[in-house]
Write a structure and sequence with these properties.
Layout: E1 2-7, H1 16-27, E2 32-37, H2 42-46, H3 55-67, E3 70-76, H4 84-95, E4 106-113, H5 118-131, E5 135-143, H6 150-169, E6 205-210, H7 217-229, E7 233-238, H8 254-257, H9 266-274, E8 279-285, H10 293-301, E9 315-321, H11 328-340, E10 344-350, H12 356-375, H13 384-399, H14 405-413, H15 421-427
Helix pairs in contact: 1-6, 4-10, 7-12, 11-13
This protein binds flavin mononucleotide.
Amino acid sequence: MNITVINGSPKTRQSITLQHIHLLEKENPGHRFEIIHIGNKIPALEKNPSLEKNPALLDEIVRKMQTSDAVIFAFPVYYALVPSQLKRFFELLGERGEPGLFKGKYATSFSTSIRFFDHTAHNYVQAVCEDLEFSYVNGYSAHMDDFFHEAERQKMLGFFNWFSEVAALKLLVQKKYYPRIPGTVVYDPDIPDQGRQQSLHPPAKVVVLTDETEADANLGHMTRMFAASSMDTVTVKNIRDIGLKNGCLGCCTCGYDNTCIQKDGFRQFYDENLKPADIIIIAGSIRDHYLSSQWKKFLDRCFFNGHVPILQGKRLGFIVSGPLGQTQNLRETLEAISETWHMKSFGMVTDEHGDRDEITARIRDFARSLELAADKDLDMGARFYRVGGGKLFRDFIYATSAVFKADHLFYKKMGVYEDFPQKQIKKGSSTPCSIFSCP
Ligand SMILES: Cc1cc2nc3c(=O)[nH]c(=O)nc-3n(C[C@H](O)[C@H](O)[C@H](O)COP(=O)(O)O)c2cc1C
């Protein structure tokens, strides 16, 4: 069987995920693997976003996928999804708009991670694969260390054998996602010039981060309506203006002292806009089954903070244009991020229901309840995403303290390791760990 592997790790040949794929390759000499490192090809494909100038590269990749017997999308989980580079690749495939491009071609996903929100990453790949008419077969989620354990290696090999048989026999697979019905409302309200007056509390600093382009008219009007509805000081920043060169490269050099090796103004933007804000609003339009790859790039680049919840306690809200109600996986991934960052999540407002006036009313009330939440110092407590994820990160950082030194020092200082059960037993009573209970 000819298998095309799309390696979505920006680390390309250094990728841990790739080493797992090499194991499948080595143990299955009867199959021919062709590996395409997509993580470093995006700038080449992006030279001309309309793909007119450089169609050959994408055409060549598409042709390889079409002529192989099966495709494996291999990737590390990045912030509950795939890395921005692979997300962009999926967008480029979708932009071709060719129906039936991969009709009936068997595909699966293979990830490595520490298994924090790996399921949402696989859900996403399944959803885009089904849009592209692949016959998607359930994927495999390996822990990044699985390669070193014989029992885990056997499981991976078993998975591959099963997948290749399913593809060879062309067994029918069950679809999980169905085409979404896009909203039809053109949201073009009359926006008042000034924000509302008398604040309930000392004015909060609100930053609205958007990735709006000319194509996102609804989003633009929604963010402007939000700004006009707020009694606080609202600054709107377009993340496209930062000029991010790359997504996260996955090098983890930042693990040492939270310094990113990429010097392109992202850090300055982060320090000047996110750190001083009391309330952060993320505004974006749904693009395939997530926000845009531009947003994913921004979020991935936040990894320089490691696992230190630098935005802890700030409020976070989302303005989303598009069928969010039909994209539960997106909601889950955004909630995962806000919980991981220990932020006080304030939910989402969308343009998917009702008419112009109803959307306006909802945006206004969203702004008002945000103010009320600040006024009452509302805290919804820590939920599974934060508590479960926190314990996962605690164990991971403890075991990898040599790489994630900055996290390790912070966790030690915050008493996170005091939360290990054996320490609690010794103490005879359990004390809530400050970092998991969001002061
Ligand atoms: C930017 C970034 C975000 C990450 N987000 C997650 C995550 O949400 N969940 C998780 O389990 N692991 C996460 N990880 C860990 C990677 O998935 C893991 O280290 C993976 O095995 C790396 O594979 P690679 O070497 O093939 O790139 C993240 C790593 C980076 C660099």
